[in-house]
TrEMBL record:
Species per Swiss-Prot/TrEMBL record: Inhella inkyongensis
Pathway: Amino-acid biosynthesis; L-leucine biosynthesis; L-leucine from 3-methyl-2-oxobutanoate: step 1/4
Subunit structure and binding partners: Homodimer.
Purpose: Catalyzes the condensation of the acetyl group of acetyl-CoA with 3-methyl-2-oxobutanoate (2-ketoisovalerate) to form 3-carboxy-3-hydroxy-4-methylpentanoate (2-isopropylmalate).
Gene: leuA
Protein name: 2-isopropylmalate synthase
Keyword Metal-binding appears in the UniProt entry: yes
GO annotations of cellular component type: cytosol
Taxonomic lineage from the root: Bacteria, Pseudomonadati, Pseudomonadota, Betaproteobacteria, Burkholderiales
Length: 388
């Protein structure tokens, strides 16, 4: 049996931290239901102590969603942890995710705390959280830029207190795939009780490597949970994108050897919903969910795909929720793609000579127009028939 990779979606928490992406309770609830249809394992529904609105959103999602585990973020203090526990009370399966920064920079400049104080606060927070919830995740914020010796002490202590998931955030997107993977592998080797927890990756995209870093954390580091967001939504340049990481693991199962519980056919619907709700447009060339992700414009590619789809497609558009792949008719298209579109439109021309003539008219038009639509083809065929 293949190992399972847990998909932890944080669109509603870290994704919402993206400037301009703030969502109402009802919007969050709608997205949470779609994440449940997508069969996300854990939904981080928000940060219950952040505002009364976020508390209500976490509470509503905890009460409505039955199939996914619902999580709230909480700083490592009793007030935040109590608010998280209270918001999660109605959940079928709940998780409290607590965090405190462990890098020298954050401890000294932001928290103004010593290493020993941070260690003690992390330990007490996990102990407190465990008294309220049997599933507790701990994150050393800015973990990747933390001193590994200190990180080992903190992580060993929180596992002893009962943290079941240890997440290693690359909070500022500074990691490089191999280095991040080895960083996690090294921590797991050095911490005596490391196998009592599931290890998790949480990568930001400041250098455009959030997905690659997450996959390296899985492959090299042995992490079995990925934290990610729909469309890669998140602060600054965003978070690891759920659709990319999931389809990488599914498509390259030969390499990763992991199972994911995600129903990929719900991916495009989730992407559209998040985009419409936040107003963040998905770039056309975005992997998996961009409008061009399964579109073919060059004649050579179109000809190949019409003969055998896997010549230029490594995934099926239909498998991730698109109606079909797309042959874009334009100046690079060949006769084969044009002829196939005529057939799809139910147009029957009188022999090859007429097809050739229509194809010539199509090419002339395509030189003037970036994309030739079905209506254009119908018009040019009618024109040709009128001329005869
Ligand atoms: O990026 C980060 O460090 C976080 C933590 C709160 C997990 O989002
Ligand atoms: Zn984050």
């Amino acid at each position: 049996m293949a190992d399972r990779l847990i998909i932890f979606d944080t669109t509603l928490r870290d994704g919402e931290q993206s400037p301009g992406a703030s969502m109402t309770k009802d919007e969050k609830l709608r997205i949470a239901r779609q994440l449940e249809r997508l069969r996300v394992d854990v939904i981080e529904a928000g940060f219950a102590a952040a505002s009364p609105g976020d508390f209500e959103a976490v509470k509503a999602i905890a009460e409505a969603v039955r199939e996914s585990r619902i999580c709230s973020l909480a700083r490592a203090n009793d007030r935040d942890l109590s608010r998280a526990a209270e918001a999660l009370r109605g959940a079928n399966a709940a998780r409290i995710h607590t965090f405190i920064a462990t890098s020298e920079l954050h401890m000294e400049k932001k928290l103004r705390m010593t290493r020993d104080q941070v260690l003690e606060q992390a330990r007490l927070a996990v102990r407190f959280a465990r008294n309220h919830c049997d599933d507790v995740e701990f994150s050393p914020e800015d973990g990747y830029r933390s001193d590994p010796d200190f990180l080992c002490r903190v992580i060993e202590a929180v596992i002893t207190e009962g943290a079941g998931t240890i997440n290693i955030p690359d909070t500022v997107g500074y990691a490089i795939p191999e280095l991040y993977g080895e960083f996690i592998a090294d921590l797991r080797r050095r911490i005596p009780n490391s196998d009592k927890a599931i290890w998790s990756v949480h990568c930001h995209n400041d250098l455009g490597m959030a997905v690659a870093n997450s996959l390296a954390g899985v492959k090299i580091g042995g992490a079995r949970q990925v934290e990610c967001t729909i469309n890669g939504l998140g602060e600054r340049a965003g978070n690891c994108s759920l659709e990319e990481v999931v389809m990488a693991v599914k498509t390259r199962r030969d390499h990763f050897g992991l199972e994911v519980g995600i129903d990929a056919s719900q991916i495009v619907a989730a992407s559209r919903l998040v985009s419409q709700t936040t107003g963040f447009v998905v770039q056309p060339n975005k992997a998996v969910v961009g409008a061009n992700a399964f579109a073919h414009a060059s004649g050579i590619h179109q000809d190949g795909v019409l003969k055998a789809r896997d010549t230029y497609e490594i995934m099926r558009a239909e498998d991730v929720g698109w109606a079909a792949n797309k042959i874009v008719l334009g100046k690079l298209s060949g006769r084969n793609a044009f002829k196939q579109r005529l057939e799809q439109l139910g147009i029957q021309l009188d022999g090859e000579a007429e097809v050739n003539e229509a194809f010539q008219r199509f090419k002339d038009l395509a030189d003037r127009k970036a994309e030739v639509f079905d209506e254009d083809i119908l018009a040019l065929v009618m024109e040709e028939q009128a001329d005869h």
